[in-house]
Amino acid sequence: MLKDIFTKTKKKKYATIPSETAKQDVPEGIMTKCPNCKKIMYTKELVKNLKVCFNCHYHHSMNSKERLASFLDSNSFEEINANMISENPLNFPDYIEKLEKDREKTKINEAVVTGTGTVNDQKIVVAVMDSTFRMGSMGSVVGEKITRAIEKADELAVPFIIFTASGGARMQEGVLSLMQMAKTSVALKRFSDNGGLIISIMTHPTTGGVSASFASLGDYNLAEPGALIGFAGRRIIEQTIREELPEDFQTAEFLLKHGQLDAVISRTELKEKISAILSIHQPGGDFQWQEN
Amino acid sequence: MAGELEFERPVTELKKKIAELKEFTKTADVDLSSEIEKLEARLEKLETDIYENMKPWDRVQIARHPARPTTLDYISYLFEDFFECHGDRAFGDDEAIVGGIAKFKGLPVTVIGHQRGKDTKENIRRNFGMPHPEGYRKALRLMKQADKFRRPIICFIDTKGAYPGKAAEERGQSEAIAKNLFEMASLKVPVICIVIGEGGSGGALALGVGNHIHMLENSTYSVISPEGAAAILWKDASQAKKAAESMRITAPDLKELGVVDQIIDEVKGGAHKDVKTQAAEIESVLYNSLRDLMSLSEEQLVDHRYNKFKSIGEYSFLKEFIGVK
Fold it and tell me: Most CB contacts within 10 A, which of A47, A96, A115, B24?
């Protein structure tokens, strides 16, 4: 009932357990409930705030499309290798079907979107991983697209910026997934040796093989608040060492404390901060000696 | 027989039977020599049948065999004047990785490898061959040293994987592995990697960015252990055998996938049956590999490595364009 929205919650006379349908009675799309502080807010407002909760600053996850829209100058993005798709090199059962289902669901062809664009008029090559496609896992296509993006940055002599979001290597492509870690790192090294600037922004989650390759190889390694970042899974570690891990283990803040990151940056400030870093890397900057 | 594996039980049982018969003929008055001959012929056939038709899971068992030769075993057969170097110069010395300088048939080289223990006590000291960040950093320090003195680098890969521990994460396990992949890319000397046992995930790859990658016939190389894969894919670690089959982790699989350059033949039944012969087998592959790579210039070596990894992976293109725009 519409009027119920405006009436203050009355003290309940008896305990109620909301049914499964009642739990989801917030209309899909119009309102969003923050999974962290449980506050309900208008989706439109939330999106305008780059999906950062007004109340607790929780960073809701973004897909590649939202990320590009929030970070690049409008209409500056030009995608490359958009239609590269995965094969099934191990003949893994159901893999092709799963890929097709995710392509249908996400309207992208793989777990990373790459291309060129500008940030406050500074040209870059950008790669954005998308955790809605196969958990952002890295198989041959993700490795190849990222490698080609790095090569593109090298060719254009512009900075390479990557937003990581990945559960790690893609199991269904076995050792070929593992080798993508080497492929991307080898490409980054060549780019770096040619003087290329690499900025890695780790978003929730950045784990496994992705964290142990390009995500950690930026000249600047940055992360969004609260992002889960680590190599081994929390459960595996707990089982191995037989002790409970601290609450903040493998969060961006934990990594910052242990010297693994340059900074944790709120999404609402990200574009300006990255823009400033890019500007500092302009050859010579805008410095001029003053006349006496 | 100690260290007997399940799939080879028929062989050991038959061997036992033949031995018993032989023992019996010594004391008894009957001539069983024709029976023994027959049995021996059967044994030979059985051995060929079993050892030449090994399933992936059988190979996993051999790769994990407690008596399987380790990096230090091979070093003692293959190199002279091995001098072990310790420590990463930042935190500590990780004994799960050993490394140092040596001579291979007189040629100065740097040798690095994962090191498992032979018994429980040594395994605890060496953390079962599962490195911490300081292990990768020690390896990288030695590789850079090799680069400075223009010595080829030989890496032996033999680990279940990076150690999933709290301290390893705190000290930047991800960064340490990533940095090795990154820095190995630009080494101006030949890098030859040989998988001698288990090649598990990032922990293995951190010593694996080579110009040539060779694999012992019964070793494995994979993105995750069969147990780990089963746990992720089917939420059931006990399906490891099934995972080992579908993940394609054996040497012939990796050759076919274009990751591995050469498969090094193993002694029948596995390297542990005859370390000396196995070492000689590795020696000849290593020699040829070095000869090929040392004819390349520094720049060619770096390009060679770039192209090797660039070519790994399978993909295709959709005809229609579907972008995010």
Answer: A115
Going by C-alpha positions, the residue among B66, B42, B49, B35 that lies closest to residue B7 is B49
Query: Which chain A residues are Cβ-neighbours of B316 within 8 angstroms?
Result: 84-85, 87
Look-up: residue for tokens 């694999």? B215
Task: Find the residue in A nearest to B171 (Cα).
Answer: A258
Query: Which residue, among B223, B302, B311, B320, would best test binding to A if mutated, counting the most A CBs under 10 Å from its CB?
Result: B223
Instruction: Identify the structural domains of chain A with CATH numbers, from first to last.
Output: 26-60 (no CATH), 62-281 (3.90.226.10)
CA distance B154 to chain A (A): 18
A208: region left, alpha or beta (phi > 0 left; psi from -120 to 50 alpha): left
Tell me the C-alpha distance between A139 and A83, whole Å.
15
- Cβ neighbours for B119, distance < 8 A, ≥ 6 positions apart: none
Enumerate the residues of chain B whose CB falls inside 8 A of the CB of residue A190.
185-186, 306
ipTM of the complex: 0.92
**CATH number of the domain within which B200 lies:** 3.90.226.10
CA A177/CA A130 separation, integer angstroms: 17
Give the tens place of pLDDT for each residue, B27-36. 877 788 888 8
Q: Is B309–A175 a contact, with Cβ atoms under 8 angstroms apart?
A: no
Residue of B nearest to A213 (CA): B178
- B26 shares its domain with B142: no
Residues of chain A with pLDDT under 70: 1-28, 285
> Searching chain A, which residue's CA lies closest to the CA of residue B319?
A83
Residues of chain B with pLDDT below 50 are 1, 325
pLDDT value of position B110: 98
Distance separating the N- and C-terminal Cα atoms of chain A: 74
The contacts found for A268-274 with CB under 8 angstroms, 24 or more apart, are: A268/A49, A268/A50, A268/A52, A270/A71, A270/A201, A270/A224, A271/A70, A271/A71, A271/A119, A271/A120, A274/A71, A274/A119, A274/A161, A274/A199, A274/A201
Does B178 lie at the interface with A, CB-CB under 8 angstroms?
A: yes
The reported pLDDT for the residue numbered A27 is 57
